[in-house]
What we know:
By secondary structure, the protein is mainly alpha-helical. Helices cover 76% and strands 0% of the residues. It contains twelve helices and no strands.
Amino acid sequence: xxxxxxxxxxxxxxxxxxxxxxxxxxxxxxxxxxxxxxxxxxxxxxxxxxxxxxxxxxxxxxxxxxxxxxxxxxxxxxxxxxxxxxxxxxxxxxxxxxxxxxxxxxxxxxxxxxxxxxxxxxxxxxxxxxxxxxxxxxxxxxxxxxxxxxxxxxxxxxxxxxxxxxxxxxxxxxxxxxxxxxxxxxxxxxxxxxxxxxxxxxxxxxxxxxxxxxxxxxxxxxxxxxxxxxxxxxxxxxxxxxxxxxxxxxxxxxxxxxxxxxxx
Length: 264
């Protein structure tokens, strides 16, 4: 069997293994998925009128406009929260002895990480679809987006999921247990809270604006918002692409180096 065939076969096996784990133990994925859904319902139905009036420059409240503003950020936050489960899953594999067993077997070694990454990206896509369905049910509409813009938005979500997944895998590899992995991955949920997901960056205090602007979530949110709602994207598209590629490359080399190092 060629090296490529071996890699594809073993990676497919590891992917099935991780999907079976997710199906048999869905509580972690469901708990992480509930966070963006609860935030969506909270900000729309509790804070929606107040937030929309403030963003509208003193105009009357418009909850439907705030739903449109809010959803792109919540979709990306969904990806961040879903990848926390990946960090926990990788940490469990590293601490429960299964990786030591894999090291003694004649398998394609990177397939273990590839299975986690592909499985996580698939879970992210499913989670985004579920949150998007809830958003549509409560009033979100994207009537101006063309088919090409929808395709670009989907591509951005997948690329962002891939980048954060590799970072989450690295966090799981350096964590001594599942609890530490969950704590190490918390920035993936915290960063969207201090981005442009809920309010525009220019409405924040001047000293805080650079914190919100120069991080990976804000340009990705503004790009997704522009694709779905027709707002100005500007340089955010290139910044989002650079962040995604940079985080993916960093996470890949970090994860593979840590995984291939000899266990202590």
